[in-house]
Amino acid sequence: MKSTFASRALALLAGSTAVTAQFDFLSDLSTSPPFYLKVSAPDNSSIDGRFLHACHTGAATNTLCLGQHTPSTSDVAGKFYLKYKQSPDDGYLINNIKILNGSTGNVELVAEPFRLALSAATNVAMTWFSPEGFADGSIYAVKFTGDGLSLPIYPVDTDFREGVRPDPTGVDASSWYTCWVLAGSYYYNALAWVTGGIPSNPTCRPVRVVKVDVQS
Ligand SMILES: *[C@@H]1O[C@H](CO)[C@@H](O)[C@H](O)[C@H]1NC(C)=O
Ligand SMILES: *[C@@H]1O[C@H](CO)[C@@H](O)[C@H](O)[C@H]1NC(C)=O
Description:
By secondary structure, the chain is mainly beta.
């Protein structure tokens, strides 16, 4: 299983030109200490306190699955860090993925930035990590506030008024849900972001996401 996945991952990396060059924007940034991501859902004890981990959705791509009440301390899939300019709480959320390098035969860690996978069929955007480049614009900077993991606010258009330009300031930590999502051939209970309004997917439960330092 593992080698099949690694081979497919490698095939994808070989097919995309200069994977490392595409993530050059990350190499100029500082690296935060590693942390786990924990779900907070005080109203639902079956979700509350569970940790998120990157889970396989396709060649070298992952979503953020709801895991156990204890983090996986040995596995890169459950560890995250931020690449940042000013503050280690404000930057690009990164998960490392293990990739088999065909030229050396070594297993290497490749940094994958957090993104959202939007679909025309739903207002539930899947959390996504993939090795594709920055150019498609779906990589989001994140921020940790007192409310946990947040994304920049894009004003919801239900509040739009004629001729009054909405002000896109601040961050939002309240649009996270855990939902059953169909990711390729996989059906997972995973962290998702609702782009506006009530989630169209009835399995979605509202959550917050907090970071927990990895004890070194
Ligand atoms: C709590 O979350 C679980 C998993 O998504 C769900 O099956 C259950 O219905 C939720 N309970 C409540 C009270 O919302
Ligand atoms: C694979 O190894 C070669 C030789 O060390 C290196 O130049 C290349 O960047 C590696 N590829 C990846 C995806 O890390």
